[in-house]
Structures are given as C-alpha cells and as structure tokens.
Amino acid sequence: MFERKYENSGNSGSSRGSYNSRPREMTEVTCSECGKQTQVPFKPDGSRPVYCSECYQKHRPARAPRRY
Predict the structure, then answer these.
(1) What mean pLDDT is predicted for residues 10-19?
(2) Which residues have a Cβ under 8 Å from the Cβ of 53 and sit 6 or more positions away?
(3) Does an H or E element contain 53, and which?
(4) How confident is the model at residue 60 (pLDDT cuts 50, 70, 90)?
C-alpha cells in the first residue's frame, strides 16, 4: 500500500544535538528596567525592552494552564 521513507542522519532521530554543540554568542546589554549590565544570547534590535534575569521574571507572560 503506502511506503514511508524516513531519512536517518545517524543521531538517534534527534536534531537538537547540533544546536547545542556550539557556544551561544552573548551580547552585553543594559537592563531596560533596573539599569544593570547583563548578557543575552541574541542581538537586540532596539524595538523591544531587554531585561536582566531578575526583571524578566517580573515581566514574563503568565503561562496558560496545560490541557490534558
């Protein structure tokens, strides 16, 4: 009937291994709320505020409850 073909790259079916294999390039920024120097794993474009880890916890959107 139907024949399914799967490509196997030899990494146990997970493509996440290569993502974490190289170090993230960190960018030095100033927190938009408290002014503390911190590092983030991306280059901000200036269109949105950037927070340190403490201030981010205060501004993080609430997670929706899981549906089972």
Answers:
(1) 51
(2) 38
(3) helix 53-59
(4) confident
pLDDT at 9: 47
* 9 in a structural domain: no
Residue 46's domain spans which residues? 31-59
pTM, whole model, 2 decimals? 0.57
pLDDT tens for residues 25-38? 999 999 999 999 99
Query: Tokens 């991306």 map to which residue?
Result: 42
Residue in the block written with tokens 């990494």: 11
Number of domains in the chain: 1
Q: For residue 8, give Cα distances in angstroms to 12, 15, 59.
A: 8, 10, 41
Residue 39 lies in a domain: yes
Residue 45 lies in a domain: yes
